[in-house]
Amino acid sequence: MHEPMYYLLSLLSLLDMVLCLTVIPKVLAMFWFDNKSISFSGCFLQMFIMNSFLTMESCTFMVMAYDRYVAICHPLRYPSIITDQFVARAAIFVVARNGILTMPIPILSSRLRYCAENIIKNCICTNLSVSKLSCDDITFNRLYQFVTGWTLLGSDLILIVLSYSFILRAVLRIKAEGAAAKALSTCGSHFILILFFSTVLLVLVITNLARKRIPPDVPILLNILHHLIPPALNPIVYGVR
To answer: Tag placement on the chain: N or C end, fewer CB within 10 Å?
Structure first.
């Protein structure tokens, strides 16, 4: 179990647990005990964790895709490239990049002037749900979240697609019987996790863009499910594997 891929899975599990513990207990407290209040500091902390850990998870998938790319396209060099030092540096990169770039989101929201009733039309403290309560102009908040989100998630997705494109090209060149299926089977679990993560996120984005045509509760429900479904299915997929 002391191999690079299992260290990456440990990091993914840690991110999933933190995301669930940040969102689900508070949502359950609302429905079970009618505890609908949250402090300003708790709200902005939840906002930071959701934004940063979500992008950290995406970045972890990208590192795992690179791991599979090296394993299949450069198998003889795999032990010298994907080392424990590489995993440690990758983990530091995942945390530092996403933590630093998402930190301004709750900071910008906390600096706004809130002069109306502080009732969030959501079950969780998303940036836009909180910022809309402000009496100030939130254009910069929206713009920063949009640019940061699509830059981080978009770049990860592009690199994942490139990795699997190279993997598929390498597999199609394998002529030995059963070798191609064996090579693809090593990527199966990882590909399923990416599919879970990307599909729920894509549906959430589409529903937010078409919010005028659908009930307002649907995006809220999908936002919560996005923090619940992938973390619940990830250990099942790799456990079966």
So the answer is: N
pLDDT of 1 above 60: no
The per-residue pLDDT of the chain, averaged, comes to 82
Cα gap 24→50, rounded to integer Å: 12
The residues, ordered by sequence, that sit 6+ positions from 144 with a Cβ below 8 Å of its Cβ are 104, 105, 108
Q: Which residue has tokens 């850990």?
A: 53
Torsion sign across C-alpha atoms 5, 50, 20, 227: negative
Q: What is the C-alpha separation between 41 and 137, in angstroms, rounded?
A: 21
User: What is the C-alpha separation between 3 and 130, in angstroms, rounded?
Assistant: 42
Q: Output Rg (C-alpha) for the chain, integer angstroms.
A: 20
Whole-number Å distance between alpha carbons of 67 and 81 = 9
- Whether the CB-CB separation of 230 and 8 falls below 8 Å is answered with no
What is the dihedral sign for C-alpha 40, 41, 42, 47? positive
Average pLDDT rounded to a whole number, residues 99-122: 85
Domains of the chain (ranges; CATH) run 4-178 (1.20.1070.10)
Question: What is the average pLDDT across 34-57?
Answer: 88
Q: What is the mean pLDDT of residues 137-157?
A: 86
User: Largest Cα–Cα distance of the chain, in whole Å?
Assistant: 69
pLDDT at 12: 87
Q: Are 146 and 154 in contact (CB under 8 A)?
A: no
